[in-house]
Amino acid sequence: QLVESGGGLVHRGGSLRLSCVASESIFRIYAVRWYRQAPGGQRELVARITTTGITMYGDSVKGRFTASRDNAKNVAYLQMNDLSPQDTATYYCNGISGSLESWGQGTQVIVSS
What DSSP designation does 23 have? Predict the structure, then answer.
């Protein structure tokens, strides 16, 4: 079970930090992926972080978003800077390890111009 938080309304150029908290201690074996889906759009993978903290980003967010994790606290973060209206979407975190997979319920991010 994953629970996202931290979404909200922000002006263009602003920042938000999303959190993804796991209810179980196996979080440390999950690779975490952050997805987003805009209204009427397809789900887009924006960032990934491995169990050891190696990160990868989609081209649309590279240089602006930073994924991190704290395994001791069973939490992953997505720091989002220099936001634009094109970043408006519902953001989801996904934890995966082999056949184990968990999804959060999503948190909405709205960026006004």
Answer: S
Element (H, E) at 61: none
Q: How many CA atoms lie within 13 A of 112 on its CB side?
A: 4
What are 44-59's pLDDT values in tens digits?
A: 999 999 999 999 999 9
For the record, the structure tokens of 44 come out as: 């887009």
CA 6 to chain CA mean position, Å? 10
Please report, for residues 25, 44, 52, 72, 90, the alpha-carbon distance to residue 36 in angstroms, rounded to integers and kept in the order given: 25, 5, 23, 26, 5
Instruction: Please state, in angstroms and rounded to a whole number, the distance separating the CA atoms of residues 75 and 104.
Output: 12
Chain-centroid distance of CA 94 in Å reads 8
d(CA 25, CA 44): 27
pLDDT at 28: 86
